[in-house]
Model the fold of this input.
Amino acid sequence: MGKFSVRDARRSEGKARILISSPAGGGKTFGALTLAKGMGAKRIVLIDTERKSSDKYQGATGIPEFRVIEFDPPYTPENYCEAIEAAEQDGADVIIVDSTSHEWIGKGGCLELVDEIARAKYRGNSWSAWSEITPRHRAFIDRMLASTAHIIATGRAKTETAQVDDQGRKRVVKLGMKTEQRDGIEYEFDIVLDVVHDGHFAVASKDRTGIFAGGDPKPITTETGALLAAWFSGGEPAAKPRYKTPPPAVNVDEVLALISVSALAPLVGLEAKVVKRFAAGEITADQRDLIRAAIEARRNQLDAAEVGA
Done:
């Protein structure tokens, strides 16, 4: 008989491994605490690398009680592992690692360690230094995966942009977000949520549970956390999240009429509102594009009037 056997696939109880990524102020800490509350956590321990910023959430509406590990530099992989160990010994059933980015880009993090080791041992050769740092970074990832608690990790994200030519006018567009961590970290998690500024909506770039299926932006709620807890306990969620009923649909004809007489400044604010209305389901993609086209046409009209003045 060979050393490998074949069995039927089955899903059993396990611990959640979730990554929440957002730019500064995007809501990753708030989202992590909200999920932990919804998951029914009896003891939440938050590993705070953000200079006590988590304390600002204590007592806030909807935020559960939680304990904090103040994590100051150096942000070495080994110190992260010790912090997770301390959280487990404190009895945490949900550990929030806020954030993992410092392990990569922070003081004493992997990138800084590579430079120091390269200079000290390899005459500046960073390739040789990586042979020492990669196993240390891998040990940190493995420590999260092996934790006895649910892990909700956060990461800082940079918004990637590009300048495009739009009918002769230069325009900056957002291409997406990139977490400030080693490339490929998303493979280690069951769920990866990218949180955007507009309304703190989350888009799942990875989701093994199917709870965030559909690809549309959704708010992070305690109900979402409850569904995740059910899924990771080995059961199936009773139902998809019932998100708040959106406000009445936008009257597009009235919006178009307003655009036709608007000055330049209101147009800029209106563009941001269009994004929010679309994310909330108040307008369709076709209506969104129609409004955007009207905004662009009015802007060109105002530009031409200014040139002719």
